[in-house]
Structure formats: C-alpha cells, structure tokens
Amino acid sequence: MYEKFQVEKKRLNDIEIFSLKGILDAHTAPILENSMKETLENGLKKIIINFKNLEYISSAGLGVFMAFIEDTRNNNGDIKFSEMPDKIYSIFELLGFHLIFDILSNDEEAINYFRQNKLRTNE
Amino acid sequence: MKIENTTSQLTLFVLVIFLLFHFIINVLFLSFDWEYTINWKLVDYLFTLFLIALLGIIHFNLNEKQFVAISKFGVIFLNDTKFILILLLVFFTLNLIFEVIKLFYATRYLPFLQLEMNFVLSIAITYFFLYFLTKWTNQIKRKNIKKLNYLYYLFIIIFGFIIIIYWISPKEENNSSVVWYFEILLLLSSAVLFSLIFGIKIWIPYTQRRIQKNILLYSFLLVASLIVFISKSSENYSGLGFSNYFFSEFSKFFGFILLVTYIRTSYFSIVSLPFSKVLEKKIYEVNSLSYLSRIVRNFNNLELIYETIAELTFNTFNHSPVWIQIYKNNSFIVKTFKGTSEKQIFDLQSTPTLFKAIKRIKIPKVFGRFIELQGGELENQIQNTIFESFCIIPIFFKETVIGHLIVANTNPYQFDEDDLDLLISYVEALSISIEGNFLLQETIEKERMQQELLLAKEIQRNFLPKSIPKLENVEIEVFFKPSDEIGGDFYDFILLGEKKILILIGDVSGKGMSASFYMALLKGIILSCRRKFENPRDLFVQINSSLFKNIESKIHITMAGLFLDLQSKSFEFIRAGHTPAIIKSNGNVQVFKPDGIGTALVNSKVFEKNLNLASGEVLGGEYFLLFTDGLPEILADKDISEGINKLKNLLLVSYFNDSNELKEKILSEISNKGTKIDDDITFLIIRIKY
C-alpha cells in the first residue's frame, strides 16, 4: 500500500528529531501520535519536528502537537519546529501556532535552542 | 382403485344382480337336471358377452387420472403387486377350505358352490388384472416414449386376436392342436410385448433400494403363485358353464402375461440392485450439494451451515465421526461435531505436536493410519486409542487456513482419495458462507457508521441558525455544505439591538460525531455568554477560558467574529486562529488578519495577550467575506494562502451587484475546480447597502 504518511526518528542525546513526510491529516495523525507517545514514554522531552518533506497538514495533524506540548514543557522539554515550507507555515500562522511554538529554519538552530535551554513555558 | 361416479356404481349393482341370476339358474339346472339346449347355450354366450360389457363400462369409468413421477413408480407398483398377491392367496385359501370340507361331506352342491365362488373370484381377478395392465400402460404412455406406444398398440391387436379365437373355439370343441399352438404363440408374444411396455428398465433404476428389494421379494412370490394359478386344471362346468369357463381361462391369460412381466421385473431388480446402491449414494451427494448451495447464502447463520455440513458428511461417510474446528490464537473451537464428543476431539489434539501437525495441513489429505498423521516417525509415538484413519480438509479464508473439516474413523484405512472431492465441495460452500458472513458484518459496520454520520450531520444542522436575521441596510448570504465525513464548520448570528450584529464563523478540528459534539458544547457556551459580553474580544476570551483544559487537548476551535455597528458606522473584526476576512470597500480589497490563537489551545492569559482587533469604518457599499478553510483549500488544492489570494482577486476583478451574485461567482469558481470536496465548505457574505 502506498504510504500516505511516514515518520522517521533520529536520536541525538536527549533530543529526538522527527522527520515527517507526506500528508498529515485525520487519517494519518494517529501514526505521529503513537510515535511521539513512544518517545515521551522513553523519557525524552526535547523534540524537534522537521517539516521539510511534509506536503499537507490538517487541523487534526496540528492537534497532535497540542496533545503533547504541555507534557514536554512541564518536564523541562519542548517541541520545536524546523524547515517548515511556506505552505505549512501559513497554516501554523493562521492558527497562531507561531505565537506558541518556536519555528526555526533548520535542525541545528533548533538543537542550539535546546543547548542554550531556550525553552518556552505554558504561560 | 376408486369407483367414484354413479355410472360405475350402477353397473356394479347390475353386475351383482346378474351374478345372482346366474347362480339361481345354475341351482335350477343342478336340482332339476335340465338339459343344456341350444337356447340355453345362446343365453350362456349372451350372458358372458353381457358380463364383459359390464366390466368394460366399469373400467372406462374409473377415475385413475393421477399420473406419478417415475421415481414413485416403484412404490405404486409394489402396492399393486401386493394386491394381486392377496387376491390370489384368497383364491387359494378359499379353494383349500372347500377341498377340505369335500373330504368329509360329499354332496352335489358343494362342488357347485366352489365353482360359483371361483367364478366370482375369477371375474374379480380378471378385472383387477385388466385394471392393473391398463393403469400401467397409461402411466408409461404418458411418459411419451414413442417406441412403447407402438408396442402398446401391437399388444392390443394381438390380444384382441386371442380373445376372438377363444370366443369362436371354446375348449371343449377345440380338438385341433394347430389352434392350440397358435393360441399359445400369440399369448407368448403378447406377454413379451406387455412386459416390454411395462418399461421396467425406465423406472427400476430410479426406485429406492428398499422398495426395489420389496419388489423383488413380492415378484418372486407372485411368480410362484401365478404358476400355480395358471396350471390349475380346468374343471367340468355344468349349467350355464361357458361364462364360468371363459372368465377362468381369461384370468389365466392375464396371469400368464403378468408372469412373464414379473419374471422380467425380478431379473431387472436383481441386476440393478448393486448399481442402485452406488446411484443412491451419488444422488445423495448431488442432493446434498444442491441443498448446500441453497442454504450457503444464509450468511448470518453460519452455525446452520456448519451443522448441515457435519450432518451431510456424517451421512455420506457411513456415520464416521466428523467435526469442524476453527483456530483461534493458539487453540481451536469445535464449531460442530457428530458421532464423537468434544472431549474426544480435544483429547486427540491435547499434545502440541499433533495439534500443530493438523493445523499445518494446507491441502486436503487422507491418512490411513494414525502414525501417518504424526509424520510417520516411529519414535516418540503418541498412543492414540480414539481414531486411526482421517480425512482432513483445510478451510480457507482470504488465503489462510482458518480451520479444518475432519472425518475420522476408529479403523485404519477407512477413506480413500475419491472421498476428498465431495468433502472439498462441502468446504468450498463453507468458505463462501464464511466470506459472505465477513462481508455482511463489514456492511453492517459501515451501515452503523453511516447512521452515525447522518446523526452528526443532523446535530450540525440543528446548531446552525434556522434563518438569517433581518437588519436594515445589511444583506447576508450564507453558503454551507457539509462534507460526507462532516467537518466541524459552524456560524452564528448574535443580534445586539436594532443596529448591531455580531457574525460568528468557526471550525471545530476533527470530524464526524466528535466534531458535532464539540460544536454543541460551543453553541452552549455562546448561548450562555451572548447577553453578558461587553465586546467581541470579551466573548472570545470567555469562550477560550471555558474550553481550554476542558476538552481533549488534541481538539481546538478556530473562530472569527465580525461586529457591525451601524449606529456608529464602524466594524470590528477579530480572529482566533481562523482564516482571515476579505473586505471590499470603495473598489479596494483587503485581507484582514489580526493576530489571534485558536481557542482551546492556550490559557486565557496567552490567548488574551495575543488576541488583536482590526477595525474600520462602514460607509455603505462594503462586502465582507467570511469563510472556513474548506473554501480556500478547494480553490487552490489545499494551499490556503494561495486560495485566499484567489478569493481576494475574485472580489477585486469580477463584477457583481449584490451578495447573491458574489456567492454565485464563488460557487462557479468551486465547480470549475471540480475536485472532490472532503471538508465542509462554509462562507458568509455580508453586504452593507448605501
């Protein structure tokens, strides 16, 4: 079967980088959700999501990040976004996610944010 | 044999009268030693003729119009055979009684009485023979076998000849052996003809074996009885003896014809008996398969199919134990069993090696010995005292073995490869049912989901305004089209006095039932807040604080509000994560996108901090376009910002006179795209008149 959505995980010390590919909608959101749940259960709270190869994200896809953001931030962690295509960014911007999340140009920058302990809080 | 109509009954009555008359005349002859003159002879002949005529009338008025199926011939034939046998036995028994009495009392009336009795009996026997022959030839003729028809007419002609000869040369005057031999020859040929017309070959093979055996037995008895009956010597007749003599001889003719027929019947019964055993088995197999194919479509009653197959197998395989086991994880369920017990079945497979050996079987197979089933290894043999030989057929579903049909026997080598074919057919029927059952369940599930979606759709409809509010100088057009899956689009109008209105549009993330549930929640919050808020911003903050942490963290709701104040001729636009508003005013088109985070995402503090207002003047002639993401997505293949640009352009370049015309323009844009809509599409157009 053609994979509508794929997620690849790469671990870097206490940071896990997720590379998303394809279409993230109501049907594929559970794949990402389970994958992130696994990471958090392993005790990793610093997460970078790379959007380079993501073609589309629906509101259900956005919901996945909201499901975990509180948990990470309460545990000295965060979810940061990187390499976001314009098309995806406009959706994040509409919803106001750019006001809640750090959206960075690449993974290195995101890693540096974590190194420098630039974490956002829920407040 | 039913005598139903009145003509026959009347004739029967006349017959009895005539027999009485015959009896009285003969008593007179005996008592007064009358002379048998030529006049009496004439009376005697006419009397016989009259009797024949009477029998003819009765015969042709009989109601025997019922035609039966070939497979039922045997039963009817057997019954008629029994009846003839009884008639003959009555004849013999009565004669025996008379002979015994004659030993002790020698009167002249006793032989006379015996003669008269035999006369009546031979009329009855003759009549029944005649009835029997005609009935059977009619049945056979009905089957329209041409050759038999010709034979039938030939038989009638020859038999007619015999009667004529017999009539003109009665026995006492017949000293010429030429006539006698001729007569015998004719009789023989008519007998052979008749036995051919009987069509034994046609119906014997279709007759049940049990009936065939009975026919054979009764045929033997009847053949013996008929030989005795025929060989009985003619007696001396006195008085009006011709009719007596005629019927006695006549019944012998028929007896002879039947004799030949019954010899032939016996022969065919003997020959076809072993074949009919095979035939019966085959017929059972064919019937069972056709029965199966009929019930196999009872997809919702799998148990019936399991049971039927076990039953059919049990009957076909001489009552060998049979069961169907279906695998579930690392065990199995016995769906049905016959001739054995569940304990035996589980005992057999109590060892994992044996269970696995059976479970692995992917092609139908026969095992002559229990050892073969275990893979033929002589070491570590499991002792089995239950079954020795097996027939094992795998049951497939979507190319995997899900179970087995197993026929077992306590004796070794009870099955062979030929047995597999039928079992395979049974199992194929079973597979069809299982597959059908699966599809049925799937359909039911789909149906249920469809029902749920319909309900969600109805809920969504119910929470939308039933009508568009009327406001002076304000024209509102609404387009709302829910997708098949039901998105969470909604809109609402809150009238604040005669000159103020708040128009809300929003989108609950998620689809179907859950979306409609949150929409209901939101509607409740709006209803409770609508009289309390100071300004639109206040309302949004209240909504967010009601929702945040109170609903699933994955769910959020985007909202936008357009507040029109016609008194102060101004508008305010506020946006919580929702798509922007497009406003056309004085030929200029602007996209209004003040900051604002979607509701239910962040706490009140963050929400409020980031929530900004856009405002402007309302002078008349303005168009406001509010929409949900479904609209720009469909216009630009899911690229929202591109879609918004297209809408902006549409407002800028196209010509429209009122909000309805603008709506039509947008709709034609949508239909131009022609793509499948998989989200709700909602948009509101608000026009301020001059």
Structure, explained:
The complex is a heterodimer of chains A (about 120) and B (about 700). With about 120 residues, chain A is α/β, with parallel strands linked by helices. Chain A contains five helices and five strands; from the N terminus they run ββαβαβααβα. Chain A is globular and about 35 Å long. The termini of chain A are far apart. Chain B has three domains: about 210 residues, no CATH class; about 140 residues, GAF domain (Beta-Lactamase, 2-Layer Sandwich), CATH 3.30.450.40; about 220 residues, 4-Layer Sandwich (Phosphatase 2c, domain 1), CATH 3.60.40.10. Chain B has 20 helices and 15 strands. Chain B has a five-stranded antiparallel β-sheet. In chain B, β7 and β8 form a beta hairpin. Chain B is elongated and about 150 Å long. Chains A and B meet through α2, α3 and α4 of A and α19 of B.
Task: Outline the fold blueprint.
The complex is a heterodimer of chains A (123) and B (690).
Chain A lengths: L4 E8 L2 E10 L4 H13 L4 E12 L1 H16 L3 E5 L3 H10 L1 H4 L1 E3 L2 H9 L8
Parallel strand pairs in A: 2-3, 3-4, 4-5
Antiparallel strand pairs in A: 1-2
Chain B lengths: L5 H27 L5 H23 L9 H35 L4 H34 L3 H23 L8 H21 L2 H4 L5 H23 L9 H55 L6 H15 L5 E7 L2 E8 L3 H7 L3 H8 L5 E3 L2 H4 L15 E9 L2 E10 L7 H46 L11 E8 L7 E7 L4 E9 L3 H18 L6 H12 L9 E9 L4 E7 L4 E5 L2 E5 L11 H6 L3 E5 L5 E5 L2 H6 L4 H14 L5 H15 L7 E8 L2
Antiparallel strand pairs in B: 1-2, 1-5, 3-4, 4-5, 6-15, 7-8, 8-9, 9-10, 10-13, 11-12, 11-14, 14-15
The backbone outline of chain B, from C-alpha atoms, is: elongated
Regions of chain B with pLDDT < 50 over 5+ consecutive residues? none
Q: What number of structural domains do the residues of chain A give?
A: 1
**Rg of chain B, please?**
51 Å
Main beta sheet of chain B: strand number and arrangement?
5 strands, antiparallel
User: What is the CATH superfamily label of chain A?
Assistant: STAS domain
- Which residues of chain A form runs of ≥5 with pLDDT under 50? none
Adjacency order of strands in the biggest sheet of chain A: 1-2-3-4-5
According to DSSP, the number of beta strands of chain B is 15
Helix content of chain B: 55-70%
Largest interface: A-B, 23 and 32 residues
Report the structural category of chain A: alpha/beta
Number of strands of chain A: 5
Could you state the order of secondary-structure elements of chain A as H and E? EEHEHEHHEH
Average pLDDT rating of chain A: 89
| CATH C-level name of the largest domain in chain B | Alpha Beta
Query: CATH first level of chain A: which class?
Result: Alpha Beta
Q: Note the gap between the termini of chain A.
A: 43 Å
